[in-house]
Amino acid sequence: MARHIAVVEDEADLAANSEAAFRRAGFQVSVYSSRPEALKAFRERLPDLAIIDVGLGAEYEGGFDLCRELRSMSATLPIIFLTARDSDFDVVSGLRLGADDYLTKDISQPHMLARVNALFRRLDALASVSGAGDCLQRGPLTLDMDRMAAHWHDQVLDLTVTELWILAALVKHPGHVKSRQQLMDAANVVLDDNTITSHIKRIRKKFQEFDPAFNAIKTAYGMGYRWELS
Q1: CB 132 within 8 A of CB 208
Q2: Start and end of every Response regulatory domain (predicted)?
Q3: pLDDT digits (tens, 9 = 90+) for 160-204
Q4: What Rg do the C-alpha atoms of the chain give, in angstroms?
Q5: What's the rounded Cα separation, in Å, for the pair 54 and 94?
Q6: What pLDDT is attached to residue 213?
Q7: Which domains does the chain have, with CATH numbers?
Q8: Which long-range contacts (CB under 8 A, 24 or more apart) does 149-156 make?
């Protein structure tokens, strides 16, 4: 069965273009023009992936609200923001709410399809490791990829799936520098360097909420990042 993509976009021409491109690529597509319309449909049946604009009609941040509601329904549903708003604040806000990617509307259709297919490859990878008992212990960190859960000093870290996979890539080989490309490959996503940097900042902040002295994720300037406990 074709995978189902939901496009939540209030600009009719853009929504129609996206729908046509995804249908040509073999996907089933549903289009919604408002947050309430989309939310009603999602409560009946979740799509396999959601592409959401930030501003929806009169709701300036309706897409952010919808992302928050979607993430509460599913921890693993791939969510992409596709919007004209490209400020660092908006990008970080979208990732903080649990989105997997944040794209601007000038992206080409082939590039967009590449990002979508990368997220679907990650879903397949998640399914393949289910039940494998893949658990990592690094000092006070416990990372259970089977259950998609992370604990720091026995406190649950509220990480998104993308953040969990990036963290797993770092902690698997402590001290080894991972480039941004390697982190993308490990997380089965196609992101730009700025988005990877935003994810790293979010991961650090979530650790620091429990442990203000946390500094295990080191920056190797010009190279990438490494996990190193002091």
Answers
A1: no
A2: 4-120
A3: 778 888 898 899 889 999 998 888 877 766 566 677 888 899 899
A4: 18
A5: 9
A6: 93
A7: 4-128 (3.40.50.2300), 131-227 (1.10.10.10)
A8: 152/207, 152/210, 152/211, 152/214, 153/210, 153/211, 155/210
